[in-house]
């Protein structure tokens, strides 16, 4: 059997979600690093793996695909991972699906916005984002946190019940993006903080630390944007600054 290859940049939340899951469920895979900051996802070679030119992407023999949620499900089906990751009970499974659907239009854009304003603004423009814009993004993040805590988590150990599922790793990867802000964004969310610790323990505390290093140190490691990426990043920045 050929080894599955994953194309990842761990600065990206959907890449971390796939990475956490693959590592935690001991799926053997080849890790192909695609550095977004250097524009490696725009190469002709990567375009053959994912014409959408986004990470994560997967290659399994001649089969290739993108989209993190779909990749997670592919890995679950291919490797028949333990049931708790994507429960066969249809109502628990529906809860995972419900979270994944909500995250695409809420948690992902909200946490991306914080990252782009706090980390990408100085990288692309050479100056900090204004406090007003940062505060607006932090307010949005608070709404997301409140929803995850009060609507999805409630008083359960994990988002869909007593055991960890892919909904938890997807959520952990999203909210991990906030470590770039340098603020303790969880101080007002005790239940969410305790949940975060449980998910980290389920995935592996060291693995989580290592996987978040790129984003935590992003501002130290990304000082000068490659000239060919400037225009593209500028356009994205304008989108997130609205
Ligand atoms: N819906 C996609 C989103 C993937 C995505 O937006 N990836 C970003 C990194 S977080 C990317 O590759 N961006 C490159 C670009 O847009 O040029 C998924 O969940 O996989």
TrEMBL record:
Its main location: cytoplasm. It comes from the Eukaryota. Keywords: Cytoplasm, Transferase. Residues 2-83 form the GST N-terminal domain. It is found in: Cytoplasm. One of its GO terms (biological process) is glutathione metabolic process. Homodimer. Belongs to the GST superfamily. Theta family. This is glutathione transferase.
């Amino acid at each position: 059997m050929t080894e599955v290859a994953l194309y990842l940049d761990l600065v990206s939340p959907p890449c971390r979600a796939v990475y956490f899951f693959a590592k935690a469920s001991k799926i053997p895979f080849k890790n192909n690093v695609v550095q977004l900051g250097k524009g490696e996802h725009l190469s002709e070679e990567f375009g053959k793996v994912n014409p959408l030119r986004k990470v994560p992407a997967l290659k399994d023999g001649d089969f290739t695909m993108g989209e993190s949620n779909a990749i997670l499900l592919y890995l679950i089906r291919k490797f028949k991972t333990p049931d708790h990751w994507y429960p066969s009970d249809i109502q628990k499974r529906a809860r995972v699906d419900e979270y994944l659907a909500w995250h695409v239009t809420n948690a992902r854009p909200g946490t991306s916005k914080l990252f782009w304003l706090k980390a990408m603004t100085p990288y692309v423009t050479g100056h900090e984002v204004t406090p007003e814009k940062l505060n607006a993004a932090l307010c949005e993040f608070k709404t997301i946190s409140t929803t995850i805590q009060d609507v999805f988590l409630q008083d359960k150990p994990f988002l869909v019940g007593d055991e960890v599922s892919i909904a938890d790793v997807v959520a952990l990867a999203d909210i991990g993006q906030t470590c770039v802000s340098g603020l303790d964004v969880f101080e007002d969310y005790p239940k969410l903080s305790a949940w975060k610790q449980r998910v980290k323990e389920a995935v592996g505390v060291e693995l989580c630390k290592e996987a978040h290093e790129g984003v935590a140190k992003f501002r130290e490691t990304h000082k000068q944007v490659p000239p060919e990426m400037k225009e593209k990043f500028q356009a994205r920045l304008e989108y997130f600054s609205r």
